[in-house]
Write a structure and sequence with these properties.
Layout (H helix, E strand, L loop, with lengths): L2 H14 L2 E3 H8 L3 H13 L4 E3 L2 E3 L1 E2 L5 H5 L3 H14 L5 E4 L3 H13 L3 E5 L2 H7 L3 E6 L3 E3 L4 E3 L1 H7 L4 E7 L2 E3 L3 E4 L2 H12 L1 E7 L8 E2 L1 E2 L7 E5 L5 H7 L4 E5 L1
Helix pairs in contact: 1-3, 2-3, 5-6, 6-7, 8-9
């Protein structure tokens, strides 16, 4: 089998499932592990897939619908929400990103906290946190109906006026090679600014985001942050984070 044929099959496999192993590809292609490894390396260099230890994953160009994400790993997101509740005190000021994991954290805060000062671009999260808030500021901008959240330059400009003690930030994916990624440039820029505007940014990433690669790499953080996860990080991701100002906390 010629290399272009193998490459087409490998790309087909990573498009059909979250990750594919070198072992399964050797069985499918009938070639050696070394040949498959070199094929994956070549495709990764061409930005057609993402190489991970023992296999490959696809590069995602869009995020699954919110309804689907909310049903993914609810137990893990619940543990992250419980960690956030223990960390953030009553009366704190908090920037809250849109997303299913931040929504889980918002629900946990709403059940336990009071007198919070909330800044968020997510209309659903604003409503959820209202019972626990002394004040809610909804960041203006273009409404993304699929997320029920505001986006764009106006949202960035509005956010730039505020500082907060904490920020709750989601990511599209996380990998050793690309670290934190998202699916749009404006989404990545908004999350970066949320981290920059907070004294204590908390990056919330349940295990369904491990070795997921969005098409936009988020800018490196210039502030110290805490990555809150529900399971132990893969070794390669943990090692890659050692060079970043990021502390890892397992909920």
């Amino acid at each position: 089998m010629l290399a272009p044929e193998r490459h087409a099959i490998i790309l087909e496999e990573v498009s059909r499932q979250p990750a594919v192993s070198i072992r399964s590809l050797t069985e499918r292609l009938g070639v050696s592990r070394e040949t498959v490894r070199k094929d994956i390396e070549r495709l990764a260099q061409e930005n057609k897939l993402h190489q991970v230890r023992g296999g490959a994953t696809g590069i995602r160009t869009h995020e699954p619908p919110m309804a689907d994400r909310s049903q993914t790993n609810p137990e893990g997101k619940g543990r992250i929400g419980a960690y956030v509740t223990k960390t953030i005190p009553d009366g704190a000021s908090v920037i809250v990103d849109s997303g299913s994991t931040t929504l889980a954290a918002a629900k946990a805060l709403a059940a336990e906290k009071k007198d919070l000062l909330i800044f968020t671009n997510d209309l659903t999260i604003a409503s959820v946190l209202a019972p626990a808030a002394a004040e809610v500021t909804l960041l203006g901008g273009r409404l993304d109906f699929s997320e029920n959240a505001t986006m764009g330059l106006d949202t960035l400009e509005h956010l730039a006026r505020y500082n907060a003690e904490y920020a709750l930030i989601g990511v599209g994916g996380m990998s050793a090679r690309s670290l934190f990624t998202y699916f749009s440039l404006e989404g990545a820029n908004l999350r970066h600014m949320m981290a920059e505007r907070a004294q204590h940014p908390l990056i919330l990433a349940d295990s369904s985001k491990f070795n997921v690669v969005g098409q936009i790499a988020m800018k490196p953080l210039s502030v110290a942050a805490t990555l809150v996860v529900d399971r132990e990080l893969p070794k390669d991701i943990f090692e890659a984070l050692q060079a970043q100002p990021v502390e890892v906390a397992r909920a």
